[in-house]
Amino acid sequence: GDSVTQMEGPVTLSEEAFLTINCTYTATGYPSLFWYVQYPGEGLQLLLKATKADDKGSNKGFEATYRKETTSFHLEKGSVQVSDSAVYFCALSALGNYQLIWGAGTKLIIKP
Amino acid sequence: DVKVTQSSRYLVKRTGEKVFLECVQDMDHENMFWYRQDPGLGLRLIYFSYDVKMKEKGDIPEGYSVSREKKERFSLILESASTNQTSMYLCATSGGLYEQFFGPGTRLTVL
């Protein structure tokens, strides 16, 4: 069945470092792909999405490109801030399916 | 903006109690979901509903039931709470096949 694999955390970086959180997926057809973020004590919120191959989603300085050839949707940011400390979830939505398939989440810790 | 509210942010119950968690959305979305979130396990789907009075089991429905009498409200019921149901519970809604919108979560502790 469909699945999402993302890198285990926690990932600890210094402020202004470059961030990559890896996400790969297994799915039939052409799923939509998402990154959600969960700040401490809050629910999840959509960070960015891409609905077809080669699409690039971007928001708040974060980017991710839908790579069908490598079945990946890696999250990147050029210069992280302490306020980016959160848990990041990669997810996919298969065509015609109400549900999202979730990765396990990656905790990001940014030190000043 | 979509607003999803959950009845409590924190809840403490005793083993064997019947527990109700309520979720209300104001965007007329058809689909609603209940998840639990545990460290190292990510999000696991308990139940979802794609219409009033309709429900589908998710990955871990055992020990839970749900009710959706009105479109805007989706309730999760723990018939007899147990300590292994201590968790963060997240409600989400979706108006289509794609993105979901989440409430702030209820952290339930069962003693």
Layout of SSEs?
The complex is a heterodimer of chains A (112) and B (111).
Chain A: E1 3-6, E2 11-14, E3 19-21, E4 23-26, E5 32-38, E6 44-50, E7 56-59, E8 62-65, E9 75-77, E10 86-93, E11 101-102, E12 106-111
Parallel strand pairs in A: 2-12
Antiparallel strand pairs in A: 1-4, 3-9, 5-6, 5-10, 7-8, 8-9, 10-11, 10-12
Chain B: E1 4-6, E2 10-13, E3 19-25, E4 31-38, E5 42-51, E6 54-57, E7 64-70, E8 73-78, E9 87-94, E10 101-102, E11 106-110
Radius of gyration of chain A: 13 Å
Mean pLDDT of chain B: 93
Q: What structural category do the secondary elements of chain A indicate? A: mainly beta
Helix content of chain A: under 10%
Secondary-structure-based class of chain B equals mainly beta
Number of E strands of chain A: 12
Spatial separation of the terminal alpha carbons of chain A: 41 Å
In total, how many beta strands of chain B? 11
The number of helical elements of chain A comes to 0
Strand residues, percent of chain B: over 45%
Mean pLDDT of chain A: 93
Determine the number of helices of chain B (DSSP H or I, runs of at least 4 residues). 0
Q: For this entry, what is the oligomeric state of its chains?
A: heterodimer
What are the secondary-structure elements of chain B, in order, as H or E?
EEEEEEEEEEE
**Unreliable residue runs of chain B:** none
Question: Would you kindly provide a written description of the structure presented here, covering whatever features stand out?
Answer:
The complex is a heterodimer of chains A (112) and B (111). By secondary structure, chain A is an all-beta fold. Chain A is 0% helix and 50% strand. Chain A contains no helices and 12 strands. In chain A, the strands form 3 sheets. In chain A, strands 2, 5, 6, 10, 11 and 12 form a 6-stranded mixed sheet that branches. Chain B has 111 residues and is an all-beta fold. Chain B contains no helices and 11 strands. In chain B, strands 2, 4, 5, 6, 9, 10 and 11 form a 7-stranded mixed sheet that branches. A 4-stranded antiparallel sheet of chain B has the order 1-3-8-7, with no helix packed on it. In chain B, 34% of the residues are buried. The mean pLDDT of chain B is 93. Classes of the chains: A mainly beta (112), B mainly beta (111). The interface between A and B is medium-sized, with 22 and 23 residues.
